[in-house]
Design brief:
The chain is globular and about 50 Å long. It has helices spanning 2-29, 49-62, 79-83, 91-95, 101-104, 125-130, 132-144, 160-167, 182-194, and strands spanning 37-42, 67-71, 105-107, 113-116, 147-151, 170-176, 199-205, 216-217, 234-236, 271-272. Strand 6 (170-176), helix 9 and strand 7 (199-205) form a beta-alpha-beta unit. The two termini are 25 Å apart. Helix 1 (2-29) crosses helix 2. By secondary structure, the chain is an alpha/beta fold. The protein has a single domain (2-246, 266-272), classed as P-loop containing nucleotide triphosphate hydrolases (Rossmann fold), CATH 3.40.50.300. Helix content is 35%, strand content 16%.
């Protein structure tokens, strides 16, 4: 029992350290054009995207940045249960001005991390995300928070993630090792590119390396326009829930990508966590 507890603690610490590195590199990439809104998606279901989204949002918040985690997988809502929180109102009510935004957003157990849930059975999610109203709504959230993290459906299942990737400043694609087929990943990346989504990185989930179960983090120099077969900027890690399932005010004004801001494409350094 003691050894199992030590392994869990070591794995938890490793997840936190790896995601802290992801957070640092996101900041480095946005020196000239700050990245604020970040889509977390995957190619197919059960790759761990909701777990990653939740842990990534927590890492942003614990780094001292105000962060909003937003439920945008409207057909399979699971963020609230993972956070262990409940909201009386959701995104649609706030978007349509039926309630104040402050009444829809709830605080989580993590300081500086808020959560915006979505109501069940919202009709035509892709049309909703494509609307000018939602674009303006996301702009407003960007102004209120240092970071907005959007957990979206898998790209192969619905067009929602592609639509949101176009609106957001960055997109991180979760890929579960020995689960996702190469052809699926290539097709997913191509779909996001067609939507003009800024695919900033890939998070490898459930990885086991030769020398340890810790993490690797490395970046390609060219994210936008890189060949899908070689992948854009790449992040490899082992953040996976125990069952291996899908679960997770800034002062400087900036032009929004939704209004024509060019996508960032800077070089970043990397950190290596494997022995």
């Amino acid at each position: 029992m003691a050894n199992a507890s030590k392994r869990r603690d070591a794995a938890s610490t490793a997840v936190e350290n790896a995601l802290k590195t992801v957070v640092a590199n996101i900041r480095f990439m946005g020196v000239d054009a700050p990245i604020r809104s970040i889509v977390i998606t995957s190619s197919v279901p059960n790759e761990g995207k909701t777990f990653v989204a939740t842990k990534f949002a927590e890492a942003l918040a614990t780094s001292g940045k105000s962060t909003l985690l937003m439920e945008c997988d409207l057909r399979r809502r699971s963020v609230a249960s993972r956070l262990g929180t409940h909201a009386r109102h959701g995104m649609y009510a706030a978007l349509m001005n039926q309630v104040r935004l402050e009444d829809a957003i709830v605080q989580t157990k993590t300081p500086r991390l808020d959560f915006l849930d979505a109501e069940p059975s919202i009709p035509n999610p892709s049309d909703l995300f494509s609307s000018k109203r939602f674009s303006s709504f996301l702009d407003m959230l960007d102004e209120r928070y240092d970071y907005v993290v959007l957990d979206t459906p898998p790209v192969s299942a619905f067009v929602d993630a592609a639509v949101l990737s176009h609106l957001a400043d960055a997109t991180l694609l979760v890929v579960r090792e020995n689960f996702t087929h190469r052809e699926q990943l290539v097709e997913t990346y191509a779909q996001l590119q067609k939507a003009d989504g800024n695919v900033t990185g890939v998070i490898m989930n459930g990885c086991k390396h030769r020398h340890s179960e810790y993490y690797q983090y490395y970046y390609n120099k060219e994210a936008k326009g890189a060949d899908a077969r070689t992948a854009p900027q790449l992040v490899a890690a082992r953040p996976q829930d125990a069952a291996g399932r899908d679960g997770g005010a800034h002062g400087d004004a900036r032009p929004s990508r939704r209004h024509g801001r060019p996508t960032p494409n800077g070089e970043t350094g990397g950190a290596h966590f494997a022995d």
